[in-house]
Amino acid sequence: MSEEARKGLWGTAGFAGLMLAAGAGAFISAQKDKRDKRNQTADDAPGFTARRGFGAYDVVGRTVTIARPREELFAFWKDFANLSTFMENIVSVKPTGADGRAVWTILAPAGRTVEVETEVVKEEPGKLIAWRSVPGSQIDTEGRVSFTDAPGNRGTRVSVRVAYKPPAGELGRMVAKLFMREPAVQARHDLKRFKMLMEAGEIATSARRKDQTRAAKQAEKQNDRQEETA
Amino acid sequence: MRALTWQGTHKVQVDTVDDPEIINPRDAIIKVTSTAICGSDLHLYDGVIPGLLPGDVLGHEFMGEVVETGPKSTLQKGQRVVVPFTISCGQCFFCSTLQYSCCSNSNPVEKQDISANVYGHAMSGLFGYSHMTGGYSGGQAEYVRVPYSDVGPIVIPDHLEDEKVLFLSDILPTGWMAAENAQIQPDDTVAVWGCGPVGLFAIQSALVMGASQVIAVDHYPHRLELARQLGAQVINFRESNVLEALMEMSGGIGIDAVIDAVGMEAHGFAIDNIMDTAKQKIGFGADRVSALRQAIMAVRKGGRVSIPGVYGGMADKFPIGAIMEKGLQIRTGQTHVQRYTKDLLAKIEDGTLDTTFLISHRLPLEQAADGYKNFKEQQDTWTKVVLKPGMATENA
Questions:
Q1: Rg (chain B; Cα; Å)
Q2: Which of B32, B76, B142, B246 is the most exposed place for a label (fewest CB within 10 A)?
């Protein structure tokens, strides 16, 4: 997507409450349909909840309300290295220095991992962070998280929107399996873990012992797989 | 450690399982001194609550001694505590509005999907219950890992023995909240279906709250006698026509507030219940609601319906017409235990409430399976079983 096109999209991001810019023509036209239709059927539902597809892109969105101040949540998210503490499929997010670039290491089936480099394309302190994969990435993806005050003293509404287009070929199938299993479920789970961490200071587990927690079991599985493939 | 595990319908046994350990910073480990079998444990025993796995440790009414604390626990080793059956973080919107049983954060994320699908929203975590509510290891065990130990457990003064305070964990607050949900006014006539522990405590609470008349409905003579001793009038539904009797006893007005302390496994030979039972047996329509239907018919116009009884699924032939046309108010829910523990502990200490009358049997933890069987099969006389992990086992 050209710089100009991106600017144009961000500029209209407020319409229909849809908070995502994506590079796909199909996706953009879906927005347009929605916007045009608003004249006939007034509907304030977030764009990603539309019953139509978004072409080559999969779009996931979720909002949670977290009983913490907006600035605090923004600050935690802004440090991308924190994301792996509540995003289950993310092994790590490592800043690479300039331009808000970071390398995301994502768990993939069969003990493999996929790396995606992203750049921050927009940041409004206390309000919004948007990122997209840099050209030539294995996965074409964009995402944004926005923070708005919830009514009264209920804290902050945190909305995440992610769009991604899996590549073709073997890697594509693997990535599809990884992401498309239940992408909406994964997003929902990750955000709920974020909420637990911010509100309660810890992520709930019903395990009796440390080695029985979901995180411990997943790490063990991952190690086994890596040993197998090594 | 030794613990009572669920293995399948009507099959529970005491096994040796892994000891719990501190996992999260706010955790504490409790060494259980007393724990009880709850009426809702019988729903698990009967296999009518979905989401149990063989090996799950049951029990959600327990108390004991703090033996280990995480870095953010406010408890101290050696303290005696009663632990609420509802697991609540204390910080989310629901906890901060005292709706502890609706806590957003205590049910592990991956366990929330089932109840989110079935109920529209995920439930909070509960000890020793279905995996829909977290699948947390329960209190019918020697040790329990207690999350959020800085907000849940209530510290008990040394001079109060276990049996006086154990029921703060569930059934006493549940009976109290049932009466509170009935919004009892001083001149009210209140009727309570089910004289199990919760029903009996609801009767006691309704009288403390100033109801002028409380009528108990059940069919077990001993349980009705306990209700009578608390100050209730009683109706045995096998002997009398309940609806007709309630109309007469309320002077032809109907009952001001009704409390369904029966829940999803109602007894009775009315045609609707026979059909519900058949459907429950084949897993088609989960809940038997005949007691609730009767309560809704008995309540006066503009009256209040309180439902502490446990339901889990869908109900058939539910009298929504009577609810709307009579202008009824319904209040229900899992108990917000932490909201009530402090006040109720004070009422136990000053003698306003005594809960020990309920206990019919005390068994070592090792004999827990017998406890389940008898609590299920001899409901008239086995009114409440307290299990003690430290108690010597009798030789059979």
A1: 20
A2: B76
- Tens of pLDDT, residue by residue, chain A (230 residues): 344 333 333 333 332 333 333 343 334 344 444 445 444 556 777 766 766 666 667 777 889 999 999 999 999 999 999 999 999 888 899 988 777 899 999 887 667 788 889 999 999 999 999 999 998 887 888 999 999 999 999 999 999 998 877 666 666 666 666 654 566 778 889 999 999 999 999 999 999 999 988 878 777 766 766 666 55
Residues of chain B with CATH 3.90.180.10: 2-170+335-388
- Please report the DSSP string for A3-35 in residue order: HHHHHHHHHTTTGGG-----S-HHHHHHHHHHH
Predicted TM-score (pTM) of the model is 0.87
Class of domain B2-170+335-388: alpha beta
What's the gap between Cα B332 and its chain centre? Answer: 12
- Choose the closest CB to A196 out of B20, B105, B136: B105
Query: By the 8 A CB rule, do B192 and B202 touch?
Result: yes
Between chains, do B109 and A204 touch, taking CB under 8 Å as contact?
yes
Neighbours of A10 (CB within 10 A): 16
Alpha carbons B179 and B206: distance in angstroms, whole number: 5
Contact, B140 vs B35, CB < 8 A? Answer: yes
> Which phi and psi angles does B318 have, rounded to 5°?
-90, 130
CA distance A59 to chain B (A): 20
* CATH architecture for the domain at B175-332: 3-Layer(aba) Sandwich (3.40)
Q: Which of residues 28-67 of A touch B (CB under 8 A)?
A: 65, 67
- Contact residues on chain A for B23, CB-CB shorter than 8 A: 205, 207, 209-210, 213
Contact assessment for residue A92 and residue A184, using Cβ atoms and an 8 Å cutoff: no
Q: What is the torsion angle, in degrees rounded to the nearest 10, for the CA atoms of residue B184, residue B190, residue B195 and residue B196?
A: -20
Beta bridge partners of B330: B305
Is residue B58 helix, strand or coil? Answer: coil
**Cα(A127)–Cα(A113) distance, rounded to whole angstroms?**
31
> In chain B, which ranges are E strands?
2-8, 11-16, 28-37, 56-57, 61-69, 80-83, 86-87, 125-126, 143-146, 154-155, 189-193, 213-218, 233-236, 255-260, 299-307, 329-332, 361-364, 385-388
The pLDDT, as a whole number, for residue A21 is: 38
- The full set of domains in chain A, from first to last, is 56-229 (3.30.530.20)
**Strand pairing report for A90-95 and A58-66:** unpaired
By C-alpha distance, the chain B residue nearest A87 is B109
- pLDDT < 70 regions, chain B: 266, 268-275, 278-287, 394-396
Instruction: DSSP for B158-186, please give it.
Output: TTS-HHHHGGGGTHHHHHHHHHHHTT--T
The torsion angles phi and psi of A96, rounded to 5 degrees, stand at -110, 15
Angstrom distances, CA of residue B394 to CA of B33, B296, B384: 18, 47, 19
Long-range contacts of B248-253 (CB under 8 A, 24+ apart): B249/B189, B249/B213, B249/B215, B250/B189, B250/B213, B250/B300, B253/B189, B253/B300
β-pairing, B61-69 with B80-83?
Answer: antiparallel
Chain B residues in contact with A203 by the CB 8 A cut-off are: 24, 109
The one-letter code for the residue type at B202 is A
What ipTM goes with this model?
0.89
Widest distance between CA atoms in chain A: 59
In this structure, which amino acid lies at residue B6?
W
